[in-house]
């Protein structure tokens, strides 16, 4: 069985043991997906969200990921993403749904191309907090083929003496390139560096456009599988979790953020009048898990 599904089942066993009212087994097209909430349990989950957290319901309903809908792929129909026991969206929603002012599915234009979709956001009197959540994602194969619209930025990052992050590019054709990321001597394989750069682009763009003017607190919420019981492939799951943490911790995100701010100002002409030193000085990054994320 794939590692991500093994983790799903471990989370399912932990959750249903703590809350027997939650049932597993989503039935669709005469097939049962046991690593998902049952149809009734998911319907109750959605109804509770709609009734008690309508802003979250609207955000997930309008989100690009279509988290609450059954998914169609060719002739096949699959359960909603958020019905998965290993859903990152469901994890952060359950953790933060009662936090006043917390928003889900925050969309930020990147200027370079596309939209950065962050899992959570909250603005307080002192700071803006952005959250990216990961649960089962580190345990799946990642595609290293990207669109070339990011090529100029990646080459700028690699050429900079400010950050130790490098993007090793091999051009495939006029539209595609293969990219391997490294941080110093550390190869980045489990941590999603491509997505993280996109998120930092979105945050930097928002600040340079004047949408926010406070301290920036970026939280990377990584599910810790060591906090639940895992029977199958435990050592491998723990190994990949530690590898993801180590890859993340190898990066100086303040330095990387500085390079991205400079790129947007000098190459894209965005917010040239703003003091990049103040923006970068107010940036902080935290790696957290489900036991220690404080806002």
How would you describe what is shown here?
By secondary structure, the protein is an alpha+beta fold. It has a domain of 203 residues. It is built from nine helices and 13 strands. The strands form four sheets. Strands 5-6-7-12-13 form a five-stranded mixed beta sheet, with helices on both faces. Strands 8, 9, 10 and 11 form a four-stranded antiparallel beta sheet that branches. Strands 1-2 form a two-stranded antiparallel sheet. A hairpin with a 2-residue loop joins strand 1 and strand 2. Helix 2 packs across helix 3 and helix 6 packs across helix 8.
Compose a concise summary of this entry.
By secondary structure, the chain is of the alpha+beta class. It contains 9 helices and 13 strands.
What fraction of the residues are assigned to beta strands by DSSP? 25-35%
- Our measurement of the CA-to-CA distance between the termini, rounded to an integer number of angstroms, reads 36 Å
> Strand sequence of the main sheet, in spatial order?
5-6-7-12-13
The tally of helices reads: 9
The backbone outline, from C-alpha atoms, is globular
Question: Largest sheet at a glance?
Answer: 5 strands, mixed
Helix and strand succession?
Answer: HEEHHEEHEEEEHEEEHEHHHE
Rg estimate, integer Å: 20 Å
Write down the overall mean pLDDT: 94
